[in-house]
Amino acid sequence: MATTYCYYTQTTPTDNNTWTLSMWVKRGVTGTVQNLAGAWDDGSNHCIFRFNADNQLDWYDYQDPASFQLKTNRQFRDVGAWYHLVFVWDSDNVTEADRMQTWVNGVRETSFATADYPTSGAPTVINVSGRVVEIGRRSDGGYFSGEMSWVQFVDGLALAPTAFGGVDATSGIWKINPGAYATPGDNGFCLAMEDRTNLDLDTSSNAFTFTTSGTLTATYDNPSNNFATMNALDNDSSTFTNGNTTLTWTVTNKTNKSTLGMAGGKWYAECKGTDVNGGVSGTLIGVGSADNVMNTYLSSTNSGWGYRCQTGEIQNGAGNEAYGDTYTDGDIIGVAIDVDNGYVYMSKNGVWQDSGDPTSGASGTGAANNQPTYGSVLSGTQFFACSSYDTDVLSWNFGNGYFATTSSGTTEADDADIGQFKYDVPAGFYALCTKNIKAYGG
After folding, report:
1. In angstroms, how far apart are the furthest CA atoms of the chain?
2. For the chain, which domains are there?
3. What is the pLDDT of residue 279?
């Protein structure tokens, strides 16, 4: 959400002593304060929900001189997964430890670095008539960088997480129960954020009008189908934005890989350069394995293959070889990985280089790693990957339909009708997301 947030002004509550906040979030960055939501009166009176700089889940209601807070011992550093967070305020509860509750993926947190529970009958700063509630920041900043979905506030009820999610009978994974909670109370709302034309629409029966400051970017990445992004933990001083799909290098000669890997199947993604500098060796866009570590260039090992911007060559640890056209700012590079047959193909603006045919199977016709001198098939788990030898900016589209905040402008989906790409996805290739991994191997 970067510097974007949503807000609305609350009415007279059903019950200021009892409420539940549920949200699904996917982190973008770690190690900095990331505010998820809050209500702010002044520096002495505010309610905040956040990941703090130590990556602990922390929420508190501060009413000078009283301060009530739950801060976990556990750290939350996974930037490739969705978390379901539920916060419950129930100050009328006779059990002190039940007056303030934190739940993650259906499991109640019980180990806290700080546990200052409310006194009996204590009201809160949030859920007050005339109070502005913000989603994605607090009033003095600390914006959330990442993705959100199904943010629900229920006024007057202390609810279990099963009101919003449940265990999948097949996988055993905690999953979303889509739909607005039926009785939201006077101040309740539901921001599903799944209507791509109206992301701040309140779908609860209250239908509050939210205001958005900044620009919300629609994404197909959601709690029911987790898409790959670039991995901010596989990072050496680079900057990640736009839900970790945009990568800005601040240190050269580095590699970054996708959060999801591919052990089998056929997969497609696109990458657009918005500040491609030639540098000494230039930008590389392609594929890497676990051997390709973040503090080395993608072509430093024989298991990494990169399409080079300056020369159009294909490059890996064995050397460089003529392959396709050069590319620069605004060009879109398609990467098709056939893990089953061990080949990777590169396109420029929809044209497969070296007359490549991703559907050619075992023959590997025109594959980037099927060249006369240095060719070899891929082996092991693969990742979409890129490298910089300068201060480049690259934006990936793993099927979300955007390069940074710019729409692909087309509606090209894969054969499973999933995702939105700029160019036609080769037959039998798929967007790298959990639904496709389950269906087509990965």
Report:
1. 76
2. 5-213 (2.60.120.200), 239-440 (2.60.120.920)
3. 52
d(CA 115, CA 100) in angstroms, rounded, equals 9
pLDDT tens digits, residue range 146-180? 999 999 999 999 999 999 999 988 878 899 998 89
Backbone angles phi, psi at 100, to 5 degrees: -145, 120
> Contact at 8 Å (CB) between 398 and 227?
yes
Question: Cα(382)–Cα(287) distance, rounded to whole angstroms?
Answer: 7
Instruction: Give residue 264's identity as a one-letter amino acid code.
Output: G
Burial string for 219-229 (b: 16+ CB within 10 Å, else e) reads: bbbbbebbbbb
User: Is pLDDT of 442 > 70?
Assistant: no
Is 117 in contact with 100 (CB distance < 8 Å)?
yes
Could you say which DSSP state residue 138 is in? B
291: its two tokens: 């051997």
Give the sheet arrangement for strand 18-27, strand by strand.
107-108, 100-104, 83-90, 18-27, 146-155, 189-191
In this prediction, residues 79-85 reach a mean pLDDT of: 95
Stronger pLDDT, 329 or 15, i.e. the higher one: 15
Q: In what order do the strands lie in the sheet with 112-116?
A: 112-116, 66-75, 56-63, 45-51, 34-42, 132-135, 5-9, 211-213
- Give just the sign of the alpha carbon dihedral 92, 98, 101, 105: negative
Query: Can you tell me whether residue 298 is helix, strand or coil?
Result: helix
Which helix (H) or strand (E) segment is 34 a member of? strand 34-42
The pLDDT value given to residue 285 = 94
- Supply the pTM of this predicted model: 0.91
Alpha-carbon torsion angle 210, 217, 275, 311, nearest 10? 180
